[in-house]
Design brief:
single chain, alpha/beta, 8-stranded parallel barrel, 7-stranded mixed sheet, 19 helices, 25 strands, binds beta-D-galactopyranose
Length: about 675
Amino acid sequence: MTQIGVCYYPEHWPRERWAQDAAQMVQLGITWVRIGEFAWSCLEPEPGRYEWAWLDEAMEILAKAGLKIVLGTPTATPPKWLIDRHPDILPVDPYGRRLGFGSRRHYCLSNQTYRQACAQIVTAIATRYGEHPALAGWQIDNEYGCHGGADHTYAPAVRDGFRRWLKVRYQTIDALNQAWGTVFWSMTYNDFDQIDLPAPTVAETAPAHRLDFYRFTSQEVVDFQKVQVDVLRTHSPGRFISHNFMGFSPSVRFDHYPVGKDIDVATWDSYPLGFAEMWLDELSDEARIEYARTGHPDAAAMHHDLYRAVGRGRFWIMEQQPGPVNWARWNPAPAPGMVRLWAMEAAAHGAEVVSYFRWRQVPFAQEHMHAGLLYRDGTRAPGGDEAQQAARDLAILAAHETNHDRADDRVKNARAEVAEVAMVFDYQAAWVTAIAPHGQDFRYFELFFLFYNNLRSLGLSIDIIPPGEDLSGYALVVIPTMPLIDEARVRALSSAEHILILGPRTGAYDPNFSIPTNGAPGALYDLMGVRVRRCESMRPGLTRRAVYQNTTYDFHRWTDFAEPGAADIELIFTDGRPAITRHKQCLYLTAWPAPDFARAWLLDVARQAGLDVQVLAGSLRRRRRNGLIYYLNYGAQPVKAPIPAGADIVLGAPTIPPHDLTVVKDPA
Ligand code: GAL
């Protein structure tokens, strides 16, 4: 069952208020509270002088009220005294400028002094509270990579670490020169100690140099986190450990899968309205207005599926938008019903907890314009009422969940069940296409979302799988693109048992970011049965055309020029080039699809795969989970739920009001 939680900052409020806050939380149906993740200067105001009394009392009060606590380690906010002692902790931007104190995430995660300081504060906190009866789990730090801060920094410590990492990876400098192609432009190195970070240069740095920087910084996030994981495992046995990740573009700056491997639960921050305003570059102004008060119907859903994969089956929403946020270009209020509906969508994807950010709007500092479940004066804001409704509805659903533990190796988690479609989300693909976009609108996240969105509007439930993992058991596997191929990836793709869709640029590179000698798709040739030696990107307005089932579609942005070997041509452009090829069960789409084409084609392929497709009207969505089918209406008009004949309604009504849902027992 999905439960409701909240993010709470007792240090922002007078002590006299805490007991009332806790009582109000319980009354509202909240069972989880996250605290402490930015409280370092309150816990250790001076080096080595700890102030525990306030947190002792706050935890006591929350515990007495029966609330379960997630304690954040405060390492996203090193205090002023620490920075003054060790200014080298501060991050350095690509131009070598040190960023200042006075906000958050002001640290360089490669800095060894900082790692030691983190170990110290976390040891102190974990020693004191690690076995507190109300403490159920930990959150390490907060949002690696957010604000473009701690993950990509350019301090000397990072450069030194990068050199060491390269030495381990390549062993000899000749091997590195070979892998990076340094003979080009006379970039040859004689020694690892000559290598700099790929910071600004006159022209661009070598693509493989930049790709390795992404790989290295991903490993640095893992290593930084591991210090705290080890402390917490030692001092706080039996408690889960989580990290709270970000949504959208900042989230592709490091590979999340290995970071997820060391923890027990992946959590993420869902701010659907802020995201609809700030991210998704392809959204038109009209679409931004349509989604301004609801969020895009697939944006949170996609992240739920992604973070379920990062958490190997276990995920939470650690921060759920409760009303207007403060940080987007514009910050509208959610449509009535959405604060509840977002929680229900998370439940439909298997979230263990939906925790709202934040309990009460704070009158001061950076986020004074950010809504809470309560207003500043402690009275209920609309989000509070909706969170309460969500808690009640989730309890109703829990009574009808079948709760079967379908063992599932694919996501290495005994609790998760297998969805109908698998999609592979690949951080390396995001980096490679950002480093070498070739066409300025070849954006990985957008291509992924295009497929996700269209599959979901066909009523399909999706699992996201990390690259290189087993794909057997799914009727349909969709990989929007996987430019970089290595042995593990080839093996995994060959494990797809049914229909496999591969998108443009798949197999374009070997692990060194070089074009395979025989052309793309390199080691995937046997699987795909085509060769690609040429490709092009197209500016808006430049198109290639194909007629599919009597409808003409224009393709923009990108085409691979496929030369079929063993593969057949399934769809041809009007200029005679292959648009889609098929080799056995492997379909290869050579071009960036127009959204309406993607939808028509995916509908056919999903039917061929024998899936229970349901073409959904407008902003209606469907998701199956745990014996239930959820129909969620993100639109402003009532919609009749396309319920299967004879299915019992457990929540809602046959006609779904705007921004509401209906849930039925899954007859399947
Ligand atoms: C999150 C962050 C929170 C708060 C929130 C505001 O990204 O984790 O601390 O800043 O955004 O929406």
